TrEMBL record:
Gene3D superfamilies: Jelly Rolls. Belongs to the pirin family. The lineage of its organism: Eukaryota, Fungi, Fungi incertae sedis, Zoopagomycota, Kickxellomycotina. It comes from Dimargaris cristalligena. It comes from the Eukaryota. This is RmlC-like cupin domain-containing protein. Residues 15-124 form the Pirin N-terminal domain.
């Protein structure tokens, strides 16, 4: 049996940081707030991945951010966003809201629905330049575009690609949200028995040998399971709802097979990063 071409380290949901504040039930993949684990501080440019459920009529009051780029991936319910740039928006299922905090912004995120909770992912990434002009963008991604395929929703700005890589590397992916670092994000809703294959981005730092990539997978805490394999080995890693996986030493242009072995659809996100 051929050896796997990369390393997989499972991050079980039960081992994530967790806090239940009554109005907020939150799980942390990386050290955040009162949860600290020196083994889980960041993964490349990925610094925060929180899975939050906020009760009706509650939320995060106005608070400041700097330097990071922050996005919210709405799973269910409604999330009202207000910020110091004048943006006011109610986000729903399928929406991805992205903020470049840069030199400084303040915002609030609240669930103003009278009865239903909101379930969303809060994700922070570190840009190449921490002192960017603040910015805001929202884009909706349709269910049909995620079903049984990997739908890209974030990719680097063209100037980031030009600065970090050679002309052999893919440029900005169409119809995605731009980010100021070498990171690509995808989402998928995989039906029972279905398989998708991710071909890892081919990146190369100018003047050096081709560098390995890394991938982070997160299975959204809803239903279904995900099997992860490299297409060469019969060995797979099973991820259930809320689980994640750190995948390292991935060869550029290598493939990762993702299959749903369960009897329910599974929704997940995938980060492909330097």
């Amino acid at each position: 049996m051929p050896a796997q071409s990369f390393q997989i380290a499972k991050r079980p949901s039960s081992e994530r940081g967790h806090a239940d504040h009554g109005w907020l039930n939150t799980y942390h993949t990386f050290s955040f707030a009162d949860y600290y684990d020196p083994k889980y501080q960041e993964f490349g440019a990925l610094r925060v991945l929180n899975e939050d459920r906020v009760k009706a009529r509650r939320g995060f009051g106005t608070h400041p951010h700097r330097q990071y780029e922050i996005f919210s991936y709405i799973i269910s319910g409604e999330l009202e966003h207000k910020d110091s740039m004048g943006n006011i928006e109610v986000l729903q299922r399928g929406d991805v809201q992205f903020t470049t905090a840069g030199t400084g912004i303040s915002h609030s995120e609240k669930n103003e629905h009278p009865s239903k909770p909101v379930h969303f992912l809060q994700i922070w990434t570190k840009p190449e330049n921490s002192y960017l002009e603040p910015g805001y963008v929202t884009r909706r991604f349709q269910e049909a575009d995620k079903r049984n395929r990997l739908q890209p929703f974030v990719s680097p700005y063209q100037d980031v690609v030009n600065a970090l890589t050679t002309a052999e590397t893919p440029t900005v992916l169409p119809d995605t949200i731009g980010i100021h670092t070498d990171l690509y994000a995808y989402s998928s809703i995989l039906e029972p028995g279905q398989t998708v294959v991710h071909q890892v981005v081919k990146s190369q730092t100018p003047g050096s040998a081709t560098r390995a990539r890394r991938v982070y997978l997160h299975v959204i805490d809803k239903a279904g399971s995900l099997d992860v394999a490299d297409g060469q080995s019969e060995t797979t890693t099973r991820l259930d709802k809320g689980d994640g996986a750190f995948i390292t030493e991935v060869k550029p242009s290598g493939t990762i097979e993702l299959a749903n072995p369960s009897d329910k659809p599974v929704e997940f996100i995938l980060f492909d990063l330097a």
